[in-house]
Amino acid sequence: MLEIKNLHVSVHGKQILDGLSLTVRPGEVAAIMGPNGSGKSTLSYVIAGKPDYDVTAGEILLDGKNLLEMEADERAQKGIFLAFQYPIEIPGVATMTFLKASLNALRRARGEADLTTPEFMRRVREASQRLKVDQEMLRRPLNVGFSGGEKKRLEILQMTLLEPRFCVLDETDSGLDIDALRVVSEGVNALRDASRGFLVITHYQRLLDHIRPDVVHVMAKGRIVATGGPELALELEKNGYRDYAVQAA
Amino acid sequence: MTAHALPRSAAEATIVKQFEALKAPPVSPRRAAAFERFAASGLPTRRVESWHYTDLRAAMTDAAPLAPSPDRAAIEASRALLAGRDKAGAARLVTVNCKFAPELSDVLPAGATAASREGRATGAKDAMASLVEAMSPDSLTVEITAGAVFSGPIEIVHLAVGEGAYSLYSLTEIALTAGARATVIETFLGAAPAVQRHAATMMKLAKGARLKHAAAVGDEPELHLESQLVELEAEAELNAFGFVSGGALTRRQIFANLIGADAKIALGGLALIDGTRRADTTIEVVHTAPRGVSREFYRSIVADDAIGVFQGKVVVSPGAQKTDGAMKSQAVLLSPRAQMNAKPELEIFADDVVCGHGATVASIDPEQIFYLQTRGIPKDEAVAMLLEAFGAEAIARVDDEALARGLRSRLAAWLAGRNAVGTTQNGTMEANA
Questions:
Q1: Model pTM?
Q2: Which of A101, A181, A211, B61 shows its CA 20 to 30 Å from the CA of B97?
């Protein structure tokens, strides 16, 4: 469903992704592991459509459609969801107002009517109970003053409500304690089904204990340098990235 | 204009003639003195420090003829205009071309009165506020005593009616006796692009009185010059907000004196400036008594080729120990050509005070836009959401839910209007210079 072919990306003239190719099939959870500076976050931003990244070659296809020709909001409307490593604080915008705007924007793009307020409230209540998101938190401005764990839970709450085709999780485990990690992982696992794809970007094996990947890719110096099953993550945990960093160089 | 270094401008010459014509019957010595204060300096130029960013003399190529007193037809036109408009408060007072129109106004509850009276001395030093005093034979005076009970805000609607170019001079006085409480909104309505409006509102709060005030400028005059002259006695509290979304050249100036101990003032505002408009907010808060508290919080959204100005000066006199002052001005620029001039100043002559100020000018954070876009929200809508939030945070300082609600809907309407015509459009207003 997601195909990345020979992707070359530079930022302010510096090459970050250097011929990256990757395929994620429907229903698959693919993990990407790699050392700092290997280009993992760049990959997630380029998939989501962040401006200021210069794609010099290659393509990213979702269900055969070229994402690189779309604005970030169109990509979201086509089903891409990025769970941010550092969710952005937006003062003055109540979280509820934002959630409703987002849900309805996706519905309008599909030609559907806006949700009624009771239906919207019901969905939010249900999802937030499951993800242990406090109702009081939803009345506060978006992400403002939220703890690291609260921000990540809210990312997964959004993912749950928006029901994307393809989810990119950028270091969702960073800043989470064990309990929050479990809640967040359960939220992700609840969304796994035969048609939805996931790209789970992480430094550490521990997230993959909770979200079991089907495939593990190792990324170094802007490309995929190894691919294997879940056992590859365990091996990395033991030996570190040194072998792969050398190999890529 | 003996002290005036520049030759008299066309607008100044017209104003002198207009004032001469008003002298039958002779004007009071008070008004004559007020005119002298204006005439001594003439229309302000950049050389007057408090007018540094708004060269009124250059902008006013001429003074439009004085608006005639409203006739029967004007009153009926006003009645029709008001009928199509929801009341913003529990009681409405109406002026038509600066004349109080009791026939269009509600009667205030017991303990409060509204009447047209001979104006009182404004004490204004500023040339343009002095000119309003000189040109206004009487003022709409609203007096509120401690016994008055209101079910909601009092709205004063300043209506402009008539065709073509004309000048308006209006003087309003809001006086609260000791311990009185009131909420007042002044709405300026109806002015078309050739109208020059000069307005002054005196707010006098006796001991322990509390006034919540908002002023809204949403019509399209060529010139809107509004002065607020505020005097707070001991323990009096004023919360005043200014909302500007129209007018080719708008200047709101506030001169506030905290003359009694323990007085509190909170001034705030939101200016929405697009096209080729200019909007200037200039405030001067003077603490002369101990333990005064002053807060100023102003925000501007400046788009297209528009220019915003914020000048804030807080003066702490030697006797005003324990003053607590904080001033903040923040602006968002939406185009590379939009300009904001911010000049906060503190003049402190007492040694035991806490005073601070801050000013920021920025564009919308692209990270915030991107985050919203990744949730499917189109860019225009994301920008509107962020601007609405930015403005709403200023409006949140309005300490009255009914007033705040009204202002939020004005903000939403302004943003919707911008989105409807596209965010990159150039304004269609004529330049004022």
A1: 0.90
A2: B61
Q: How far apart are CA B216 and CA B226, in angstroms?
A: 11
Specify the pairing of strand A223-228 against strand A65-66. unpaired
Cross-chain residue pair A109–B376, CB shorter than 8 Å = yes
> Residue A137 domain-assigned?
no
More confident residue, B292 or B27: B292
| Domain-located, residue A167 | yes
Angstroms from A222 CA to nearest CA on chain B = 23
pLDDT tens per residue across span B391-429 = 999 999 998 888 899 899 999 999 988 876 544 333 333
- Beta carbons within 8 Å of B260's beta carbon, 6+ residues apart: B207, B232, B233, B234, B235, B236, B289
Q: Find chain B residues with C-beta within 8 A of A50's C-beta.
A: 370
> Which CATH number is A45's domain given?
3.40.50.300
**pLDDT value of residue A35:** 86
In this prediction, the residues of chain A whose per-residue pLDDT falls under 70 are 245-249
Q: Name the amino acid, one letter, at A202.
A: T
User: CA-to-CA distance for A65 and A81, rounded, in angstroms?
Assistant: 16
**Calpha distance B253→B179 (Å, rounded):** 27
| Mean pLDDT, all residues of chain B | 92
Question: Which of B365, B404, B357, B360 has the alpha carbon at shortest distance from B383?
Answer: B365
Q: How many domains is chain A partitioned into structurally? A: 1
Is A107 domain-assigned? no
Strand partners, B140: B116, B172
**Residue-range definition of the domain harbouring residue A223:** 2-88+149-248
Helix (H) / strand (E) element for B147: namely none
Residue of A nearest to B364 (CA): A90
* Residue A5, amino acid: K
pLDDT tens readout for residues B101-112 = 999 999 999 999
Residue B172 has pLDDT above 70, yes or no: yes
CA B324 to chain centre: 24
